[in-house]
Fold this sequence. Notes:
- By secondary structure, the protein is mostly beta strands.
- Strand 11 (about 220-240) and strand 12 (about 245-250) form a beta hairpin.
- Helices cover about 15% and strands about 50% of the residues.
- The protein has helices at about 10-15, 15-30, 35-50, and strands at about 65-80, 85-90, 100-105, 110-115, 120-125, 130-145, 150-160, 165-175, 185-200, 205-220, 220-240, 245-250, 255-265, 270-280, 285-290.
- The protein has one domain.
- It has three helices and 15 strands.
Amino acid sequence: MKRLPLLLPVLLVVVLTFPTKAQKINDLVSKYGSHNGKGYLQPLADAFGANINSGFYHTANISAGFHMSLTVEAMAAFVPNDKKKFTATTEDPFYPTTMTQAPTIFGSVDPVSVSGVGGTAYVFPGGLNAKNFPLAVPQLTVGSVLGTEATLRYVDVKVSSDVGTVKLLGGGVRHSISQYLREFPLDLSVGFFIQKFDVGDIISANATLIGAQASYPVGILTLYGGTGYEKSSMDVSYDSDTDTTKVKFKLDGVNSVRFTLGVALKLAILQIHADYNLGSQSVACAGVGFGL
């Protein structure tokens, strides 16, 4: 357990992945009002919601007695090509009103320009040209009482004057079903998780996940999988170059059901795992840490 504090500096570094991008996102989306802003940022809401609901488990076995693990969970949501463009509309006072295909936040870095009357031009900003959207969070799991373990994710870090404070508070519980099915060949469990993530006054996101898990040990490896129902939303607030008042709107993540398949390795107190989460927005996840 003396090695666990060595992870703490790493946790503080990896959790800054999202706020670093958030600063650039704010600069790009400020070119838009609420209508275009929603289309521009919807893929971000999809990717973020799918990411943050990943990595909560890497086995369905919830052993009796005390156990604890501290890990870093790294996720990457894949960005399909159809989420790199959206139908954008020129905003007042530009004339005539024109619709065109413009980059989303994950689209090409090259802006798109349309011509108006009198030689005017309306420029839609480019994106991050991203094939995936990464995120990493610290995670503490402690158990078990009556076959139940608890998981906590927590961060409260002042990043910069531009971004503000990054806050993550989340967690949940899992309960062993295997303890009631002594002869069943697989380990089974169910779980519920809820999270809240704030980045300054730019983004406030919420996510919930409820699901069932199964696993099977093979030597030092554990094969695991699961299915779950999830929901996420993102409240966005920013100053726009085109609106005199602050732009505010809410986006719902596209995922509702996910399927997970992964493998975990445990060597003494070292824990490593990787899995793939299939849904409307797919995610790859990997974790490393220490535990007893």
